[in-house]
């Protein structure tokens, strides 16, 4: 569908579907980005079941343009986040979404709008994302969906999903670039005073949390975790952890898998990356020093492992999430 001319002769029709307790900013993003800043390349209308007013976060209601019949006429359907996303949607909404998808309509979600696509079965077998606070629920409620919490958005071709809030802007700009080329995408970004491009593979900001914390584990597993974290700067092996906690390697691995749901060395690698994130955010220490302090070896090895976990290089992560700090200090 890409067309690089300044204005498309026939605008692409877009429906923004408002569901109960629609998130106000999520709802406004496609209306503003696609409807007002693309030189007429899109025709954006809003809709709801029955065309009725929809309660929005913030204590007011939005009055959509149309009912669900709008989905029969459009090129793209966008579903903004909504706070009632864990509740069952009405059959008429699911039927309309399924029918649109079968016709080849492009299906897009922002934030928890992904739950609507998942309820309709549209995300089955696909990689998808949502706001990082909701990824666990999405994965639990819809096990057929491959949920990825470490990206801003996922483009599966006909089906696209984004993380929360600002990631919806990134996804809308991605749609513009895909439909009308980079020049139009950059012009639209300028119009909304946004960075022209953030790759979909860039990591969401996720608050630091242990994969499984020692406090939630049996005494032997907890002791192994605590010892590993205290000594993470050293070249630790499974044998080292077992010897320090009087467990055989086989018993340690079995106990870890049973209670933490992850292999010991994978858990330790995740802990090292979490600590590295904290240091990148709060210190100006050189990459090589951070790598050594968390036990990830050389700077090159650190970059490889860090990017595997976050989809960002350490420098990109620091640029995105770092704060002003004292140079080079590591506690």
TrEMBL record:
CDD domains xref list: GATase1_AraC_1
Keywords, alphabetical: DNA-binding, Transcription, Transcription regulation
Domain called HTH araC/xylS-type: residue spans: 222-320
InterPro entries for the chain: Class_I_gatase-like, DJ-1/PfpI, Homeodomain-like_sf, HTH_AraC, HTH_AraC-typ_CS, INH-QAR
Entries under SMART domains matching the protein: HTH_ARAC
GO molecular function: DNA-binding transcription factor activity; sequence-specific DNA binding
PANTHER family: ARAC-FAMILY TRANSCRIPTIONAL REGULATOR (PTHR43130), HTH-TYPE TRANSCRIPTIONAL REGULATOR RV1931C (PTHR43130:SF3)
Protein name according to UniProt: Transcriptional regulator GlxA family, contains an amidase domain and an AraC-type DNA-binding HTH domain
Species this protein is from: Arthrobacter alpinus
